[in-house]
User: Fold these one by one.
Assistant:
Number 1:
Amino acid sequence: METNYFTVRAVLRTDKIRKNGTCPIYIVLQRNNVTQKLSLSEFIEEKYWDKDKEQGIGKGFGNLNAVIKKKKQNLEDFIRESKSIGRPLSKTDISNFWNGKTETDNEILFSTFYESYCKRHFQTIRKSTQIHYTTLGKKIDDFKPNLMVSEIDYSFMVEFDNYLVETKSGRYNMIKFLKTVLKEAVKLGVLKNESWKGLKNVSPNAREVYLTPAEINKIEICDLSTKKHLELTRYMFLFSCYTGMRYSDVVALKKENYKNGIITLKQVKTGVDLKVPVNIEAKKIICKYWAKRKENENIFPRIENQTVNRYLKKIGEIAELKKTLHFHLARHTFGTTLLNNNVNVFYISKMMGHKKLSQTYAYTGINVNKMKDIMGTVNFQPKNENNNLNRL
């Protein structure tokens, strides 16, 4: 019976010493009481070998030690992955993997490999990222049910990319996460064909859609008296417009995060500390819910992101907006409104919790008239100095 126990060690074969005094290094796999020796095709003198640490002694063997470590890790990952997807391994399978001749990839369903990948990695990634991976699994299953790992090549990637574009399915993130999965499949020897790497992912364009003050006002005043279930969504969305906070941070906001007119918290998505001064509109919304919530409760009652976005579409229709509302639009609105009010982009970046200014630029759509006004005040000529341009 196959067990989960195995060991992988690097040993020096002193019984195979060569004429130049060096001995070959082998990787020894002990599995199910069976020993398998795999040649590393590397050699070293016995006096430079540390038997306990399983590596060369001294700075001159840095590259060799790195090779040993990588080869051992790759073999361990291959064995664990095979076990997780229920694939038994013979000594021949191990040898084929070691020598780069694995031919078992056509026996593996992508969904089986993907399920084990998610199970392993979901322990270390954020819930927001887990949602992307879950969505990717559904998209691939919808696009091609019973996809085999061996079928994934450049042609598949092009077709899947086109499918994502046609279905408006968040193309950039889906391809990015799929490539991450496929890199591990290659590393584990599950996937041999690497032509899929040829598909270049297209970075999303800077998103310039945002709400104007007039459009925000329409949301504020639209009549929801007959649709009370939409009220919480409206106030959470407006709160985000006034603070620039993500949905995940808005729903996680506690009373302890708000003191002296400033919100201070660690962002859920990035873990970066955030400080946001709160304006009068945002304070009114906080006050609306503050007394209704217990001291240890979040300020806003819990509501799922998907539900919020579904409700926002209805609110947009009631407010007679031409733009489609979704929660992240509020964050774009915050950044753009500040920029159009001459707030320095450095301060906008800080209030949005960005690490780099380049992140902030994607959230700030500049009004064309604003750009005209700016250029109208710019003078490229020295003051009080005659030049040829003045005579044009």
Number 2:
Amino acid sequence: MSDETPNDTRDTSGRFVKRAAEKAHRLHTPSEDGVHPVAKILFGWTEAKVAGTAIFWGIGLLSAFLIVIDLAVDRHEYVHMAEATGFYALWGFAAFAFVVLMGWPLGRLLRRSESYYGDPGGPPSDIDPDIPAVPDAAPTYPDEGDEH
């Protein structure tokens, strides 16, 4: 019985390692366009021209289906306004819009000025560049270099 397998696919013990190693290498090496192969497997379908349209209409149909289901549910809410059809969808959208829109004034409130850390082009104004810096003689850790 003869072995028809080329010798370049087996190692010295006869195992098929080259093909497995090349396959593993292909799965972990980004392509020329910089995309990881696993990313292509998981998200490659989003490159299709109809992907955005399909997602848009899919979410729209799911929303319409949930509103139709909401018509069939008999609600007994504490607040009478919550019994309206699509109330939770509108409430969720309003809450989401509020959080997103409040990011703008919050960012302006918390944002530092452009010159907060000083001039990025040189040393700080309170340090004289002509005086040499004294190296820190203390060890990084208190017990560094000590033998017990």
Number 3:
Amino acid sequence: MNLGRKQQEEHIRRILDAYGDLLYRMSLSVVGNSSDAEDMVQDTLVTYMTEAPDFPDEAHEKQWLVKVVRNNSLMFIRKQKNRDRILSEQAKVSVGRDADYGILDVLYTLPDKYKAVLLLFYVEEYSVEEIATVLKKSVSAVKMRLKRGREMLSERYREKEHEG
């Protein structure tokens, strides 16, 4: 992307306004803590400015950004030597109003493959087909992950309710 400095800043601002929350939540769902999620979003923006192709429309741009932030986040996790530290930080993530977000707290404890599918489907309102494309999985695999993720989420949420 060959833009002047001011144009680059405006372009990045547009990307952050349009997709910043989505990219942050996607990354947070994988890396488990806000500072690393912010780093992954920043890395995604750098990749966008240096490697992004020309997109035919905003939907393709959004899909590309989601893929890149997810891949960056997964690579980050793979490189971590101390997985336990990340999981403990993930448990400490506060999403705000406890009563309203109890289900999100439980969602963040699910395995990544279910968490990502549920977030894309329910929070970002992606279709099953769009999720399959983003995650490079079959439609059938996405449907199965949604089913199993819902079951797991329901079970864990009930357990949490009984504890509390």
Number 4:
Amino acid sequence: MKCPNCGTELNNNETFCTNCGKRVDGAIDTPTGVESSNTNTENKVEETVQQANQPVAANTAKYNSTVITGFVISIISIFIISIILGPVGAVLSAIGLKQVSETNEKGKGLAIAGIIIGIAVIVIMVIGYATGIVSNS
């Protein structure tokens, strides 16, 4: 016997199609009063099959631009204008981290890395100026 809805080959004793969940016409009739229960079950089976056939939505969250900017500036501060870019990168990364926690954007790890790098650059520059290793000229 074949399902009239999708054409799947079925056993003669099956009440519902194993592929689409539709009730098969050759099914044994149920007593009065039970029909509505079977209809509800049939609808639930159909909904479940339809939900199972739906594609899974990909995670479309994008990276927060403030986080990316802060991280890049923190990295650049390692090489040039450290005393200015270090704090700017750390602050932008902190702002981005707050934004990421409030929205559904990506970038928490980049924000934390930007903050750590920015603060590390500041500490290294302060130690360098204090010990005379780094000079203003």
